[in-house]
Amino acid sequence: MTAVEDVFHEGGPRSDKPLRRGTIAAVIANPFAGAYVEDIAPFMETLKPLGLSLAQQLLKTLDVPVSEIESYGKGAIVGANGELEHGALWHVPGGYAMRELLGWKSSDSSESGQPDNALAIVPSTKKVGGIGASLDVPLTHINAIYVRSHFDAVEVRIPDGPRADEIVVVLAMGTGARVHARVGGLAASDISQWDGLR
């Protein structure tokens, strides 16, 4: 399920260019539902193609160039027969898919001398919930986690999921700061460290 939202204002002056936020969610079977399994980490490798596919589909749905994506986040809702750790399996497949799609290559600068894009860790949230549970997915700046204007969240809900043996996995992207951001902190234009933080 995909959703796109254009935010022109939140009670203040109307912006000429709206903030566009989008989410994509997929419902998958939880292979570990109903039992404690010690070694679950290999499932992350299984989820990597899904992560890349969802990231590509979300970018296409947002209908903006890669260069306009300024924030991202991810999350998971685990059905009642699963555990919170099953949602953590989405960290690598979801996060790295978006980072690579948006230009991250390595921790070093690219050959062109310009820093890579999508340097910041992708924020995340997860919970165990029943059918129709909602999840507030955090958003932060793709290159510097300390850019306060981009601290945001989007709500996601699948009306008929997750069932007890399912997991809802979510990716989110946005094109900018909150429309009326004005509480100071590091500005996106002042990113200087290119270390994912500042």
Automatic annotation (TrEMBL):
What InterPro entries does the entry give?
A: AA_synth_put (IPR009569), BB2672 (IPR035936)
Q: Which domain of life is it from?
A: Bacteria
State a single Pfam family of this protein: AA_synth
| Family annotation (SUPFAM superfamilies) | BB2672-like (SSF160519)
The protein, known as: Amino acid synthesis family protein
Species annotation = Rhodococcus jostii
